[in-house]
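The protein record filed here:
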Amino acid sequence: MLSVEWVQNLKREESQVIYFRFLDVNVFDMPKAIDICYKYYRQTSLPNMYGDQNIASAKLRFLPFYPLVHTFCSSELEAFLCSIFLPRYDPETYISQKPCQDACERVYQSCQYAIGRSSFLWPEELQCSKFSNVATCYSKCFEGDFPFILSYT
């Protein structure tokens, strides 16, 4: 359960991790407290597609998805959600990487049964047709590898 103390700790940690601002994008080091995304990449850029300007508000958007994550319906679900709420920042291209349409379709297909058996509704704004497969999109799987995982320090 989300506690007030947890949110306060996250806000304290977040205030210390802003990396830099590039154009209209704030780049943050991913707090270790957000382990769901930290294991995939180390930098995020905001605002996200919902307009969240800080990590704490973006993290709160995950809450409705935790029951679905705990069904383990897709090995890509966590990375897909991270790419939506806390998109990966690519320091080489200076681009905030949005999710790929292919990744969305794989996740939705894998989780369709779990979604149907629960009260969870796949949000309209996450319809896969709204994403693209441009070269700069983010997908955890690429020929069985995890190309964007950085080494743990």
In short: The chain has one domain: 4-130.
